[in-house]
Design a protein that fits this description.
The structure holds two protein chains of two kinds.
Chain A (H helix, E strand, L loop, with lengths): L2 E5 L2 E5 L8 H8 L18 E4 L2 E4 L12 E3 L4 H10 L11 H5 L22 H9 L8 H14 L5 H7 L10 H21 L1
Helix pairs in contact in A: 4-7
Chain B lengths: L1 E3 L4 H10 L4 E3 L5 H6 L7 E4 L9 E3 L3 E5 L4 H7 L5 H8 L4 H4 L4 H7 L6 H8 L1 E7 L2 E6 L4 E3 L2 E2 L6 E8 L5 E6 L10 E8 L4 E7 L9 H13 L2 H4 L5 H13 L11 H24 L10
Helix pairs in contact in B: 3-4, 4-7, 8-10, 10-11
The chains are: A alpha+beta, B alpha+beta.
């Protein structure tokens, strides 16, 4: 079957989708967006977290056919999503992340540049920058899901308590057990967000 | 496999009548796991996501009519006063991501003995609104669970809503697991005080082939509370009464040994949870307690 839906602000079409396929499989294998990770395939680990009509969900548990006509935000579009949210609208008229940009999204230093740091060569969302600054990325496998979940929590709860953070991230497992730095990163992003709001 | 996408409830009933083997999918948190792991290859998937009314609820005079697909998150955020037991149970479900998708209709459809909502529904009192092209019927919650992952639904029926009695007194929910998030219950216990009828109702999860009420424990406690005039006096429940209640609740279990726990442990833990939830709710009833939200 064919599935039409919006990914990171742009209309996309996935063809030859098997009826029992998950949204995660469509994103990774049909659209070439491997940012959402495939680990447990049973909703235990949160690595595949995306936003479906704004709500964080495990994309491995959403049937592809269920996303017809709906909006999905993946980690590849998070920077653009965060920028638009801050601007309050789609000011430039060219919103969203194209499939090509999303497919080639990388936070790695640019090729051949040895003194460049992670994230320098691309636009990052505040939560992504905070993860890098706090050293919250170890093997990196859980990171995309955590970023999507944490970003949504900060949108909903601008000044989160530690309990709020733990609760919001309770569905995301990190097997490097780097949770303390992950919490640090979210606190950092929250503090930066607060400072920015005070300055306005 | 065919993917059926009815745009209305009537279309969904027609599709289910035409294809009784169709597996309804709403939040997908049970069905997709089975498909992902190749445990199930249904001929038809019947997507209920386009039917908006299934995510709505109505608070009436006596009942809350909860649409089958109202996500647990919405129950926690909006129905804490009307359905405190179910709101607490909802909060123990898996993780935010799962609670954003899963709902009580799916819990009932799967009818796992470990489903988190069941003890709360049994304790509060509820009826399942099931419908087919043949008509609609209300199934009392006590008659709904018929076996391990089996329920009273006919092949052409779908769950439209659950009618749950609005709380007329304190309710509590307790669940044993290895951590707070992302656990299937080792066992669980729900308890509701119903001061209007001077009765106590219970629900046990994950400690028998189906979710069950601890009937003998309820009968004993109802008689003891009546005899002792506890409902009027609001006195502390005599420890021997609470102990006997706990023992009877433990005796209502018919558990198995499995990877999550042994039968012996489950019996023991259910007794403990019965005593504790009785203590918590009774303190709330007496009006002396601090806020006990989140005690689950």
């Amino acid at each position: 079957m064919r599935v039409n839906f919006t990914v990171n602000g742009r209309r996309q079409e996935a063809d030859d989708v098997w009826e029992g396929e998950s949204l995660l499989y469509v994103l990774r294998e049909r659209l070439g967006l491997p940012g959402s990770k495939n680990a447990c395939e049973q909703g235990e680990c949160g690595s595949c977290t995306v936003r479906l009509d704004g709500v964080p969900v495990c994309s491995c548990l959403v049937a592809a056919g269920q996303v017809e006509g709906r909006e999905v935000v993946t980690v590849e579009g998070l920077a653009d999503f965060a920028r638009q949210r801050e601007q309050g609208s789609c000011a430039s008229g060219a919103c969203g992340t194209s499939l090509q940009d999303a497919q080639s999204w990388s936070a790695a230093p640019r090729d051949g540049v040895t003194d460049s740091q992670t994230g320098e060569g691309t636009e990052l969302s505040p939560i992504q920058q905070a993860f890098i600054d706090a050293g919250a990325v170890q093997c990196g496998f859980c990171t995309p899901g955590l970023l999507v979940a944490a970003d949504e929590m900060l949108e909903r709860t601008p000044s989160p308590s530690d309990e709020d953070i733990r609760e919001a991230l309770s569905g995301n497992l990190c097997r490097c057990t780097g949770y303390e730095k992950i919490l640090d990163a979210v606190r950092l992003a929250a503090a930066r967000q607060e400072r920015k709001e005070e300055a306005v | 496999m065919d993917f059926l996408r009815p745009a209305s409830w009537e279309e969904a009933l027609a599709a289910k009548a035409e294809h009784p083997t169709a597996v309804p999918i709403a939040g997908g948190t049970d069905v997709m796991v089975e498909i992902n792991f190749d445990h199930r290859r249904p001929e038809y998937l019947l997507d209920l996501n386009r039917i908006g009314e299934l995510t709505e609820w109505e608070v009436g005079g006596e009942n809350v009519r909860l649409g089958a697909s109202v996500p647990y998150t919405a129950i926690m955020e909006n129905l804490r006063a009307e359905l405190p037991g179910l709101a607490l149970a909802s909060h123990t479900v898996a993780s935010p991501q799962i609670r954003n998708r899963g709902g009580v209709g799916g819990n009932l459809g799967t009818a796992s003995p470990a489903g988190d909502a069941h003890p709360a529904l049994l304790a509060a009192g509820a009826e399942v609104e099931a419908e087919s092209v043949r008509g609609s019927r209300m199934i009392p919650i006590d008659e709904f669970y018929t076996g391990v992952k089996r329920n009273a639904l006919a092949a052409d029926e779908l769950i439209r809503a659950v009618h749950i009695k609005k709380a007329d007194g304190p309710q509590q929910y307790s669940k044993v697991g290895t951590r707070n998030a992302m656990v299937i219950a080792v066992c669980a216990f729900g308890l509701a005080l119903h001061p209007e009828t001077r009765t106590v109702r219970t629900g046990i999860g994950s400690a028998a082939p189906t979710p069950v009420r601890a009937r003998a424990a309820e009968d004993f406690l109802n008689a003891a509370l009546e005899e002792g005039g506890f409902w009027e006096s609001g006195n502390i429940i005599t420890p021997s009464v609470a102990k006997q209640f706990a023992q009877l609740a433990s005796g209502a279990c018919n558990p198995i040994d499995d990877v999550r726990g042994t039968a012996k442990y489950r019996r023991h833990a259910v007794g403990i949870m019965a005593r504790r939830t009785l203590g918590w709710t009774w303190e709330q009833y007496r009006g002396t307690a601090r806020t006990l939200e989140g005690a689950a």
